[in-house]
Fold:
Amino acid sequence: MNRRRSHEPVFWVLFGAGGVVAALTLPALVLVTGLLGPHDLLGEDALAYGRMRALAAPWPGKLLLLPLVALPLWLAAHRIHHSMHDLGVQVRPVASALVCYGLAAAGSALALVTLVRIG
Amino acid sequence: MSRRRPYVRPMAGWWRRNPHHFLYMVREGTSVFVGAYAVVLLWALTALADGPDAWSTWLATMRHPLAVLFHLVVFVAACWHTVTWFAVSPKTMPPMRLGGRPVPASALVGGQYLAAIVTSGAILYAAAAAA
Structure:
């Protein structure tokens, strides 16, 4: 019997959380930040610097923005990592996991540090 | 060192031959665009932290035709992620019971669509600047 604990549940939880957050928010978020907002279709000041800072500076705003940015990274990392295997890419699973989850972790850390920096 | 070369089963294009497998790979493929969009959001955060000039640059970049094209693709991918995520949720979520009876799959999926509509409405309402 293999008594070593698997790391998989940790990534699976982050993947699941990322999947839920992405499913609930991304279509509307893409509309706001990518398709309507930059073209002033939500009002001229929708994405104004001062307005965005007022959103990201207080702690409730930071706690709202962190999962919106970080969790979808874990969704993508998990699926891309497993798709490597599905597509028969000859890469060691450990290497693919390190790169995929490593990038997601780095992105999450950067998001956290940046949000604190907006302070 | 062995002279024999191990047999590697050819895997090229297996997912294109069966519509079910094709849809599976399309679903998994949406994650590439979700990840790319998360990086754009991360870039927006760093621009916001760097100051008004960096923010203007980010905003101007978002107006570039290629950025618009990118976001159109991301929008379709994100919607497809939402549809497929909700569709499999009755099988991936822990079983839910209400009044001793299992909650029907249709109610579970319908409830999530309702949650998505409410969340999306809230995001768009909060984002729209008061005229």
Remarks:
- The CA atoms of residues 6 and 12 of chain A lie 11 Å apart.
- Chain A touches chain B through 57 residues (CB under 8 Å).
